[in-house]
Amino acid sequence: AIRCYGNIIEIDPTQELALNTEIGILHVMSKKYDEALRTAKYIISKNPKKAEGYYVRGLAFYGNNHLNDAITDLQLALKFNPAIVGAHYFLGLAHYLKGDLEQARTELSKVIAARPDISDVHLVIGLINLKKGWTEEAMDEINKAIEKNPNNAFAYNLLGTAHMIRKEYDVALKEMEKAQELDPKLVDTYMKRGKYYLMIGEPAAAEKELRTAVSIDPEQIQIRTSLILFLISKNKYDYAINVCNEGLKNKPTDAFIYNLLGLAYIGKKDVSAAINSFTRAESLNPKFISPYMNLARLFVSEGKNDKALEQYDAALKADPNNAEVIITSALLLERAGRDTEAFNRFAKAKYTNTPVGYMALAAFYVRKDDFKHGIDTLKELLAKQPKLIEARNELAAIHIKKNNIKDAEAEYKEIIRIAPDSPIGHNRLAALYLKTGENEKAIAEFNESLKIRSDQPETIIALAEAYARKKDFIRAEGIARQAISKYPKKGFGYHIMADMLTKQKSYERALMYYEKSEKLSTGDFLSPIGTGNIYLLQGKTAKALEAFRRAETMNPRYAPVYFYQGMAFERMGDKNKAIERYRKTLDFSPSYIPALNNLAYLYAEKRQMLEEAFKLAETAKKIAPKDGAVTDTLGWIYYLRGDYDKSILLLKEALSLLPNEPSVRYHLGLTYIKKGMRNEARRELEGALKLASNFPEANEAKRILKGLSQ
């Protein structure tokens, strides 16, 4: 066609402007943007006051994703000739891609006025409305496009998307099926259907959709990536490896596939193959950060921290201001006790001028008990970005640590003011009120949150918990029934009911509801934990351990699940396995108080590990100074170390925090004996037995009391 146009121009030079314009448009359609720019330059040189050259150049810039240049040239084209409908259309698209939605709508409305027969314009306006959250208006525009072109597959796909946003899933699937009938190769429909099936817990159906998408467009890396990540998440490592290998094309883009290949090999526990895959990804694309990060994590898991730091440093050579790499490496240095080096990296993270950098430095200060600098760092960030909710949330958390409840309350109220259409502020404020025992205020805030967005399972659960704290189990169970009625195919309503029944010691009914919740909710690891805790209370430790192991398979990175397993082993008398589980808890969550406390106590029983026990208990006390169990453990360890004065101070403090815990009185009684304070010892031991005649040390307490009476 271009050659023909060239021949016509030679025969009839009067048609040069019109035909060169057609030639330029053909270059754009062929994605030969450099050729199109050269043609446009020639047209403009011959006709600087005419629209055609600027129009062609604008189209070329648009095709090259140079949106600002495209907008400038298309506006120039319209200045010389306002009747070029295509210029309005592509100017609207350029504004849309830049996020200038209202400007895009203005230009596209002009296209509709001039050419009401063009259906695609309605689709773009529909996309604009979806981006603004106006699903009703979006659907109106999409239906207009369908009226004008009933065979437009993309229109049905977009209509299905709108229904999905409105959670009208059955209708959404039908619209997408229609899109697939019209265009079986419309990949986006398979991707969206795959995500939907994942969301509702039908992995087999999701896998089928993703496989189809890859078979339609095997060269599209993002589609292949979605399938590989899905397979890895389902532990189908061999299949994931095959899909990776099928996607390797000996191109630089193979770096993305090799990175995923490394993750699959990690799943197979083939460390050597994983290292080779990540290393290959790094060599193919040295600027691609993910393989450095994944390889560093692998080295950390093997205890090779120096090698991990080498990977982080290599990543920083590729991207010196990558806040994620800087922060992750700083955390590794901090865990290794290299605080000065860690601080330098956290400070560097701040100077990337990213919110996450500021917040990481603030968090480091707080971990070192330097609350002033933590607060100052967050205030410095908020001076630049006063509407940054995450920073205000962190600031409130520091105030709570310092017990400055009013300051925390003020921050949460400011979040509500900044983001009145978000439930976040109300949820945080409600949680604060629960902490301070102001249950009525908490209930009011949870209800405000649910007015903004009703489909918040965690908020509904918290609201039920607030009523339970008031001992208003009728209202709490009512919330559970409403959730079951409204969401019969979701498990959280059953979970709420199980929690409420557990609190009322109706254990057998609670177990039935936990079982129902676990069946309905794929990945609901909290229900087997609830089941396990009931079995512990009933003394059925083997069943408890089985339930906790089910929870582990659902969420192996959830630290408390290992703690609960440790408790089960401890009840079974296997203290070595209990220690191993508590240590694994701390691998995932080094500040998890119950594990620090229980591990310290078990280490203290092994007298040869008394110093390690002391370190753990001191760490726990620093993190949770008002925790009675922690204070008791630390006081008992001071007793075992022979520092009876310090032990008495701590055990008296523990008793004030846990006045109804017989073991604390028992520990205090033994400490008084060491100080020769027999009357005080007798009082505490007798008090312990009055609280409970069958606590673990009860027989020993009785024996000692007999001795004191002689």
Overview of this protein structure:
This protein is mainly alpha-helical and 710 residues long. The protein has a domain at 525-583: Serine Threonine Protein Phosphatase 5, Tetratricopeptide repeat (Alpha Horseshoe), CATH 1.25.40. Helices cover 78% and strands 0% of the residues. The radius of gyration is 33 Å and the shape is elongated. The chain starts with a helix and ends with a helix. The mean pLDDT is 93.
Quick summary:
With 710 residues, this protein is an all-alpha fold. It has a domain at 525-583: Serine Threonine Protein Phosphatase 5, Tetratricopeptide repeat, CATH 1.25.40.
**How many β-strand runs?**
0
The CATH H-level superfamily of one domain is Tetratricopeptide repeat domain
General shape:
elongated
Which whole number gives the mean pLDDT? 93
CATH topology of one domain: the name is Serine Threonine Protein Phosphatase 5, Tetratricopeptide repeat
Share of β-strand residues: under 5%
- Major beta-sheet overview: none
CATH architectural designation of one domain: Alpha Horseshoe
CATH class membership of one domain = Mainly Alpha
Number of distinct helices: 42
Instruction: Give the CA-CA distance, first to last residue.
Output: 116 Å
Structural class: mainly alpha
Which stretches are low in confidence, meaning pLDDT under 50 for 5 or more residues running? Answer: none
Helix percentage range:
over 70%
* Radius of gyration from CA coordinates: 33 Å
